[in-house]
Amino acid sequence: MPWDFSTDPEYQEKLDWARQFVREEIWPLETVFHELDQDQLDRAYAPLQERVKEQGLWAAHLPPELGGQGWGQVKLGLLHEILGTSMLAPNAFGCQAPDSGNSEILALAGTPEQKERWLEPLLAGDIKSAFSMTEPGAGADPTLLQTRAVRDGDDYVINGHKWFTSNGSIADVLIVMAVTDPDARPHQRASMFIVPADTPGVNVLRDVPTMEHPEGGFGKLGGHSEVLYEDVRIPKENLLGAEGTGFLIAQHRLGPGRIHHCMRWLGVSQRAFDMLCERATYRYAFGSTLAEKQTVQNWIADSAAQMQAARLMTLHAAWKMDTQGASAARTDISLIKFFGAGVLHDVVDRALQIHGSLGYSTDLPLEAMYRMARGARFYDGPDEVHRQSVARQILRGYEAPADGVPSEHLPTREAHARQKFAEILEMVTAND
Amino acid sequence: MPWDFSTDPEYQEKLDWARQFVREEIWPLETVFHELDQDQLDRAYAPLQERVKEQGLWAAHLPPELGGQGWGQVKLGLLHEILGTSMLAPNAFGCQAPDSGNSEILALAGTPEQKERWLEPLLAGDIKSAFSMTEPGAGADPTLLQTRAVRDGDDYVINGHKWFTSNGSIADVLIVMAVTDPDARPHQRASMFIVPADTPGVNVLRDVPTMEHPEGGFGKLGGHSEVLYEDVRIPKENLLGAEGTGFLIAQHRLGPGRIHHCMRWLGVSQRAFDMLCERATYRYAFGSTLAEKQTVQNWIADSAAQMQAARLMTLHAAWKMDTQGASAARTDISLIKFFGAGVLHDVVDRALQIHGSLGYSTDLPLEAMYRMARGARFYDGPDEVHRQSVARQILRGYEAPADGVPSEHLPTREAHARQKFAEILEMVTAND
Amino acid sequence: MPWDFSTDPEYQEKLDWARQFVREEIWPLETVFHELDQDQLDRAYAPLQERVKEQGLWAAHLPPELGGQGWGQVKLGLLHEILGTSMLAPNAFGCQAPDSGNSEILALAGTPEQKERWLEPLLAGDIKSAFSMTEPGAGADPTLLQTRAVRDGDDYVINGHKWFTSNGSIADVLIVMAVTDPDARPHQRASMFIVPADTPGVNVLRDVPTMEHPEGGFGKLGGHSEVLYEDVRIPKENLLGAEGTGFLIAQHRLGPGRIHHCMRWLGVSQRAFDMLCERATYRYAFGSTLAEKQTVQNWIADSAAQMQAARLMTLHAAWKMDTQGASAARTDISLIKFFGAGVLHDVVDRALQIHGSLGYSTDLPLEAMYRMARGARFYDGPDEVHRQSVARQILRGYEAPADGVPSEHLPTREAHARQKFAEILEMVTAND
Amino acid sequence: MPWDFSTDPEYQEKLDWARQFVREEIWPLETVFHELDQDQLDRAYAPLQERVKEQGLWAAHLPPELGGQGWGQVKLGLLHEILGTSMLAPNAFGCQAPDSGNSEILALAGTPEQKERWLEPLLAGDIKSAFSMTEPGAGADPTLLQTRAVRDGDDYVINGHKWFTSNGSIADVLIVMAVTDPDARPHQRASMFIVPADTPGVNVLRDVPTMEHPEGGFGKLGGHSEVLYEDVRIPKENLLGAEGTGFLIAQHRLGPGRIHHCMRWLGVSQRAFDMLCERATYRYAFGSTLAEKQTVQNWIADSAAQMQAARLMTLHAAWKMDTQGASAARTDISLIKFFGAGVLHDVVDRALQIHGSLGYSTDLPLEAMYRMARGARFYDGPDEVHRQSVARQILRGYEAPADGVPSEHLPTREAHARQKFAEILEMVTAND
What we know:
Four copies of one chain form a homotetramer. Chain A is α+β, with helices and mostly antiparallel strands and 432 residues long. Chain A folds into three domains: 9-110, Acyl-CoA dehydrogenase/oxidase, N-terminal domain (Butyryl-Coa Dehydrogenase, subunit A, domain 1, Orthogonal Bundle); 129-240, Beta Barrel (Butyryl-CoA Dehydrogenase, subunit A, domain 2); 247-395, Butyryl-CoA Dehydrogenase, subunit A, domain 3, CATH 1.20.140. The first copy, chain A, contains twelve helices and ten strands. In chain A, a hairpin with a 2-residue loop joins β9 (284-285) and β10. In chain A, α5 (99-109) runs antiparallel to α7. Chain A is globular and about 90 Å long. The two termini of chain A are 45 Å apart. At the A-D interface, β9, α9, α10 and α11 of A face β9, α9, α10 and α11 of D.
């Protein structure tokens, strides 16, 4: 049936399992996470990962030949909605960023040798990888990238200054975006390179502390590293894909990534929303429970509407990507990026407000959600750039009226309308 | 395939036909509409209605046995989105309010005699009907209805003061909601009655002029009448359904009606959005076209996101109504009511603003759309009541934690988490 | 005392008188206004104007030598707040647009001959004037003006297409802005001319119907006329001021005009706010009066805050204009334009919503206020242009840091801070 | 001159000094603050405090007899706007919360003995004090306070559970609010007590970690402590003021406190705004600096308008408090609480967004400002309660119309208007 919003029953069972598993097994980990060292953490995760593999939910984003499921974005989206409820869940499901995205890139653009050398150990969990694109002086505008890779004999020599390199301080290998042809068209200037972390000249300066991770990193789950590349020499075999295809590859990685992001945000939102509603049921002030206050009712109703909107829009974008390809879904994906980030903020914000001081304290996970949510508005490109991009794509479908008068200008249209109407009446009369 | 957002190709063809038909045949009527008398208008509509019937799109909301299509709300929704682009379109498609809703009510709750006497001529277009529920002193709260119907022998005698009775001044028959048992539970106090317009005591005071129709009515398409019922005596056979079922019947009428409303609003929004985008392409100020201004780009992107959201939410509500029944879709329908009204306003508002003085003038249809949009926020119940209703329904799914501590209170949860984690580590160690 | 928010008691008395006078004498006129012909209206106004003159409140915007008061903008603002409560009030106080602004222009830039010929009869109420600047193709960007005035011997010949020419259809004389030097700098291209309405070639096409005045004009109080100037020949003596000073003069007129506008909007807002609050006290729904609903409480609190904000900002801008001159107050005036338009809309919108259908009907003045409010967002330049103007003026006060690093970049500042602190400690230690 | 928005020149000089002093001497301290121990910090502050005293700006909130200035709230407000730019500034100016508020309370309600014992060492900086009012189960509703103080012979015995007790963990003495008469009227149930920190039964459980201070306290400047009072016995002489006056005293403390808060928020906002504007001047993306992007221009213009609004409203409230008393200013103070909190958030949020990842990192002070700003919406009572309070106070000025019809109902008013108008015409005619 067309316009069918249901999930097939078999997959729904998997989702139900995942939801319960994440809630019962992963959420408790959150409260002890900060006390564990890397070894303890790995030991704690191992049996969880085993159970996920038994359910056939491991690394579901990968194509079947790499051990994934080949499900398409709608199904992945529904799973990521559940994983989003805990920042510790993706690692249990084999889809922890940036390793997940990097493995996709290597699967897509890597040579057989590159796959053997880097992809296989990555999938086996034997190595960790970083993604190194953002620069202090270049945000969303790719033409501003400064890092250069210059061909020198059989090598490339990379120089540049990156930051917000995910996992940079714990990675064994970095995927680095660098300009190979400064004179090419904007989106063909850069290429991607595989850079082993122990290559001389790779200097990880620090994990940049942020509002989300003020301690400078996620510790065991990686950080946003600042990295200086000084005369980093790598063999030309480490070029990923063809020269000039850096943005093309990045785009391929970012599209599905944004869908997963948005669905994970919905997981966070739902968790915050549940807290908001629970609080309303019993908190009492000024003569009634908060559930009876119209302001709180408005928060609940607006949150429900926004979450429903973001969810349907994201799944629609996923469906379009699955059925018509990434390019056709481009506008839809930009839409959900900024719309979804706004929903995440609003819902978490209301849940925090209803808890007052308690919500502001670290006794509840809401304040951490709020700090995380603030990042959503510029990660993967600031909302402003996505809005611009959406508008430009939409405007391609319109053209200026030939006479410079709006198509719907009534006085201009009136003559036509009169004639039309006269014809109708005439026809009617003729039939009488 | 589940989560399928496509329309079946055969129906898509019908929609494409309808879209072109409304644009080419109905839109021009708008500019001459005000000059036509009732007879001319009827003559102009006749051949249009014939073509709609040929396409099998006539009165599509009715069950097949009454000449409708029995399609369900998703398909109806998609059609109403197109009809919404012109307030003159529904009449060409046999689904002009309030006749459409009234015919549904009669089909649902009418006796065979009532159907023969009222429904058949209504469907044949031989009579017009009004819907008389709203009272000056009673807005959205049904317990405040004052109009009374008192049983007197074999008759009912109705007394009361209604307004915003759609079509009141041109109707042959009115469906009137009146309290039959003031002591019953709130939603069982009232009943519906069929009142011929020529019954003594039915006094139509005026068509209330509004922001949308300052001239006091839509003229040939009816108005919002103020009606005084003074000792209006009707036989008991004119009771519609059982005593006390007035709200039940009204609810049945309003549910699908809201879906159609929301989809028609999207039609209006899309028309305004097209004007907004067209204007951006050629209007020039301060060194560039408006398409290059980021404020305008934001308007376009936000409008696109909001419209996409409202569209998917409405079709989802329609799907839920089709597959799980009206009751299951209740929250969804309240959601789209207030969310959709907001979207309509925002999109029309932006389209008007980009046209400046021109948009504010009656040379473009935008100012009329803007006036119409303002009504959407309280028609069929003010947004505030729908928000409240949504919140109450959602809150039924939550309960207060037994110990009065939020379920996610980290200090409280920590003991459990530690034990959980100890077990995991133990298990892992045992397996070593 | 500095930072003194009080009004001097003597003037407060005048304001109190004006408030009561407008409420008791002018408001009732609103309900019969549409039935009066021009003569009746003039007769009705005459005694009212007399009483205003007796109070010394007549034409208060004019300099003393022209019969005005020379009070400055703060006092004028406080008066206009009261006049704003009724669109019929300004005419009783001798400050009806566009005559009020035109008389200011003539007083400012007119030659003695021009003053005698046009200003005196204007002040005496013997003639009416129009202001003709806006063109269909030129909104807020002055460089887009197309109307041309070409010197030909001792005459100027004007050709062009204007609309939204206030009073165009009833004026005896029009002040017309036309380009005299297309090659000059943007703000020196145009000049102002005095054009008698009966000059051949002045063709008033229509009063443009708008959302506010759908009947095409304010009738007896003028309309927004569309005017075609075809080879309109006027003697060079009708040039107002020097060639190229058109925008300079317009700017002089618009500054105080915006302050008066904003204060009048506050008058409208206050009147709507009073209706909102009154309704809350007695309207009952769902178990309590609306005054007990938190949504309504939010509306009241937010409206009060916004009105207080707009009021203080406008009076502050007026004070700045009075004490530091129009140029110093430029940013402040742009601020209140868009901020005030938003406040007006929001307050009226809430007042309308709380009245539901009644507010939407013409039985209350709210729906007319709502339609009027929509115009405020683009009259005198769209809000978007004022925001841009404010930003540009503010940004002139900032410069890029020499090293391209934000002044507040903590790592960069740290060295300086350490040294500073070492010095402090050293100093402290030395003092020990 | 009435409506005078200027500051007297002498005081302006002091403000200019303070602005430069805070910027040059205090801001640098921020970057080394976290490394200093208490002793170093005290030593660093000493010379700074000396300079403030020399300027006559020390403890300016106190009455002259206690070494303060007795300036009134307008002047204090202007000073706090400057102090707000750094959270380290108040301590240098002798007005660090909660000591500043506590000293006001002691000055207001303390007996001579209490003043000698507690106020004098507090003012001398020899001891630190805490303010202990908030309870986990009682937010803004005072009737929900659970902490009890029971008279027992010549003592009071206090039992209860408080949190967000400012300075609790470092204080020598705590001001504690406890219920003395549970059956009294809501605002007369509680009293304030002076509780030495070393009294048996005063158990400081922890400093509650919050979004603003995740490390659990401000360290050397105090924290939000959770305190358990278990059979805390204090002599009856430690009652502050009369029994039942707890809320009265608290209210006295909170009024001016809110004005100072709001002005400090404006200091923060201005600092963030400066960063926003500076960034716009040089950051380049997509073909121009950010200063040229209309979105950024909108941010600047809207921020400027909001800050101007909040500033004028706060100074107006201060002026009202100075001239008409705290009670008259009550609505004004509630208004600025929620309005100002919103402005603070919005400005900081935009400044952060324009800096993207950099703004989100701890390399700029913006992310800390953003976290602080989130607290402003519920500190000193959540915004929702202040809105409710404002609405209730305003609504006292309105009453229901006697006939249940809106005062402005046009049909109802029409008869009166016609009569009025007939009289006018008659009068005019008589005069003819």
